[in-house]
Structure formats: C-alpha cells, structure tokens
Amino acid sequence: MTPTSEDATGVVTEVHRPRGLRWLHWITVACLVAVAALALVRDQVAGRLVRQWLLEGHRHTGLLILLLACLRIGLRLRLGRLPPVVHSPLVRVASTLTHAALYVLLLALPLIGWALSDAEGKPVHLFGWTLPALVADDEDLADQLLAWHQNIAWALLALVLLHIGAALWHHFVKRDGVLRSMWPAGKR
C-alpha cells in the first residue's frame, strides 16, 4: 500500500518522496551507524595509533553528517512543503516536531564535536583540508563541550529510536506504506 495524502480539495492522493531525499536519508543513517561504531570501538581498543585513527574516522564521518544535514535541509527548502501523509493532527504535530529536532541535532552534534576538537587544541581536517577553528584552545570549554557532545548524542539516539519505532508502527500496524515511501530504491 502506498501512503496517501489529502489535497486542498479533500482528494486523497498517493505520497511519493523525492529520490534524492530518500537517498540522503539512508546515507545519513549509514553515517550515523558508522560514527557511533567508531566512537564505541575507540573506547574498547588499546593502542594509541588505532585509537587516533578511529577518532579521525569519527570526526570525518561526523563532518560528513553535517554536510549531509545541510544538503537535506537545502533540498527540503527547495522542494517546499512535502505532502503530508493523512494522520490525526496530533500525529502530524509529533512527526513535524520530531523531524525538526532530528535536523537540529544532526547540525548541532557535529558542530559541537568540531568545537570540542578546537577547544582541545586539535585541528580539524576534512578530506585533507584543515578547517577553521570555531573556538580557541580552552581546557574548561573542552570539558563542557565534551559533556554537551555526549548528552546530545544520547538525545539523538532517543529521537532516532522514536523515529524507527514510528516507521515500524506505520509499516506493521497501520500498514500505510510510509516506510516504503522512504525506501531508497525499487518498488515502494
């Protein structure tokens, strides 16, 4: 079943999400899994060189998430308001707020990580380029930014789990095709 939307005249139509938006969504998912795995594995391994390599991978992937989030926001602005799936007003508001919070955290978390590296006196590189410092070298600020980075990561995880739960609810309970409308390729 394909998700439906109601137009201004009350006519129910199928909802299709743009291919680029769907691909950016799933590339972001893959990057989020990678950035979390790199951070978690880094805490479990010995060896300074390996830990540094994992940290650099975490930083690069986090910055890639920042770029993807900017692309997603730009694409959403270019596309304008997507047709909403027919839901109760409460579900529509919850969905809108959750998506907005996800976008904010996808921007905030890498920016805070970037600032954290700067505050620790570690230059941030992306694909060979040294990025400008967002903050000065400051140990106290680094401690505060580390706490923020970790707390925001937990908040992002909570929202991602809520998002996954909603997608599964749509797919298995409502059977309304919302999950299939976001699948990257093939039949929806």
Task: Produce a short descriptive summary.
Helix content is 68%, strand content 5%. With 188 residues, the protein is mainly alpha-helical. It is elongated, with a radius of gyration of 19 Å.
- Beta-strand residue fraction: 5-15%
Shape assignment: elongated
Query: Helix fraction?
Result: 55-70%
Q: Calculate the mean pLDDT score and round it.
A: 89
Main sheet strand line-up: 1-2
**Main β-sheet description:** 2 strands, antiparallel
Q: How many β-strand stretches?
A: 4
Report, as a whole number of angstroms, the end-to-end distance.
8 Å
* Structural class computed from helices and strand pairing: mainly alpha
Number of helices: 5
Calculate Rg over CA atoms: 19 Å
Give helix and strand order, one letter per element, not per position: EEHHHEEHH
Contiguous low-pLDDT stretches (5 residues minimum) are 7-13
Describe the protein in words:
This protein is mostly helical and 188 residues long. It has 5 helices and 4 strands. It has helices at residues 19-42, 48-79, 89-119, 139-174, 178-181, and strands at 4-6, 12-14, 125-126, 129-130. It has a two-stranded antiparallel ribbon with strand order 1-2. Strands 3-4 form a two-stranded antiparallel sheet. Strand 1 and strand 2 (12-14) form a beta hairpin. Helix 1 (19-42) runs antiparallel to helix 2. It is elongated, with a radius of gyration of 19 Å.
